[in-house]
């Protein structure tokens, strides 16, 4: 679960007086999530999500994340909106952490997404890419090639504890990606973590996207590759080409991919698989036993990475060329 920082009821009541949010009726920690501490609040006005920003979130990035939600929402994307304080600021402090109130999004995430849901996700991702145009702030992707190397430097010495031979395999993967990473593809604001737990559905209808705390400026097709990794593999590790096809068709129904983007999908997918492998590996090796967070399996992403390595044409992702 992810509640790293506890809050005292009196402090929360005091914090809420800065907002026009009504009076507190109840609050509870939310078990899901990895990065931040989240609480569900019921007030006399409306349900709200309270987020306390934790370890990997830089305070200086918060205006980008919160402003982005406002920009995307104004552009027609369904996503939470930060609630301004009475003084207009979007950010306050609670229990010594930067904290924000955001609107509660109806829906729930799908534990067993089907191909038809992948199509909706592809569409919503493309809508987000379009809605992100014109956003005034920028944020470089801290988890691209350089950031991967930093994570790897911190994990490399113990990597073979997780699987023998990993040291050599990941070292040469990083070399490959450094040499082949595409540079001239369309870029813009990407979500960068659009996993099933960050997409809400009401029945089969997508009700919105959450968790913009990895959002940044990067290649749009890299975001597509993140979604292929996160949505289109089955529990047994097999790639589901029907899901891939639906995801890509859904995306292209809003924003067609260029030939260069399509050609780059295998290398981008290797990069995104490595990115999630590395953060999971780092967390696996450093999260203390008994911590209140569910550690995610790095090897799931190693298997995905190996799959992308043997792709010989983007057609294998379900694209019709
Ligand atoms: N705006 C929201 N509306 C409804 N539920 C939310 C909202 N934001 C977060 N949640 C709940 O909190 C959980 C964790 O949120 P998330 O932003 O993914 O956390 P983290 O950044 O720590 O991974 C989500 O799975 C969801 O259950
Ligand atoms: N999606 C990442 C972990 C980040 O978790 P989130 O709760 O912020 O989506 C992974 O699966 O490794």
From TrEMBL:
Catalysed transformations (reactions): L-homoserine + ATP = O-phospho-L-homoserine + ADP + H(+)
Alphabetized UniProt keyword annotations: Amino-acid biosynthesis, ATP-binding, Kinase, Nucleotide-binding, Threonine biosynthesis, Transferase
Pfam families given in the database record: APH
Residues covered by the Aminoglycoside phosphotransferase domain: 27-257
Keyword Lipid metabolism: no
Pathway: Amino-acid biosynthesis; L-threonine biosynthesis; L-threonine from L-aspartate: step 4/5
Coiled-coil regions listed in the entry: none
E.C. no: 2.7.1.39
Molecular function terms, GO-annotated: homoserine kinase activity
Enzyme class: transferase
Gene3D superfamilies according to UniProt: 3.90.1200.10, Phosphorylase Kinase, domain 1
NCBIfam families cross-referenced by the UniProt entry: PRK05231.1, thrB_alt
HAMAP family on file: Homoser_kinase_2
UniProt-listed PANTHER family: AMINOGLYCOSIDE PHOSPHOTRANSFERASE DOMAIN-CONTAINING PROTEIN, AMINOGLYCOSIDE PHOSPHOTRANSFERASE DOMAIN-CONTAINING PROTEIN-RELATED
Family per similarity comment: Belongs to the pseudomonas-type ThrB family.
Annotated protein name in UniProt: Homoserine kinase
Species for this entry: Rhizobium viscosum (Arthrobacter viscosus)
Gene it is expressed from: thrB
């Amino acid at each position: 679960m992810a509640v790293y920082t506890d809050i005292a009821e009196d402090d929360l009541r005091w914090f809420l007086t800065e907002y026009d949010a009504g009076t507190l009726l109840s609050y509870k920690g939310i078990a899901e999530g990895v990065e931040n501490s989240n609480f569900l609040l019921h007030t006399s006005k409306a349900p709200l999500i309270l987020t306390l920003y934790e370890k990997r979130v830089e305070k200086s990035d918060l205006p980008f994340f919160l402003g982005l939600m406002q920009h995307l929402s104004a552009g027609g994307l369904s996503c939470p909106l930060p609630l301004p304080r009475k003084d207009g600021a979007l950010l306050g402090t609670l229990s010594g952490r930067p904290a924000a109130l955001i609107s509660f999004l109806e829906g729930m995430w799908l534990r067993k997404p089907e191909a038809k849901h992948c199509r909706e996700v592809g569409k919503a991702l493309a809508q987000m890419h379009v809605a992100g145009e014109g956003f005034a702030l920028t944020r470089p992707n801290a988890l691209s090639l350089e950031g991967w190397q930093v994570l790897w430097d911190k994990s490399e010495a113990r990597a073979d504890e997780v699987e023998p031979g990993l040291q050599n395999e990941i070292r040469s993967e990083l070399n490959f990606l450094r040499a082949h990473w595409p540079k001239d593809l369309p870029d813009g604001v990407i979500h960068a973590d659009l996993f099933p737990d960050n997409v809400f559905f009401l029945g089969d209808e997508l009700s919105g996207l959450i968790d913009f705390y990895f959002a940044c400026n990067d290649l749009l097709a890299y975001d597509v590759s993140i979604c292929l990794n996160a949505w289109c593999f089955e529990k047994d590790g097999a790639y589901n080409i029907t899901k891939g096809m639906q995801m890509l068709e859904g995306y292209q129904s809003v924003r067609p991919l260029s030939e260069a983007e399509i050609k780059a999908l295998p290398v981008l997918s290797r990069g995104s698989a490595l990115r999630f492998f590395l953060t999971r590996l780092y967390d696996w090796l450093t999260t203390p036993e008994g911590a209140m967070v569910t550690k995610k399996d790095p090897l799931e992403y190693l298997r995905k990475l190996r799959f992308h390595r043997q792709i010989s044409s983007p057609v294998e992702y379900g694209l019709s060329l």
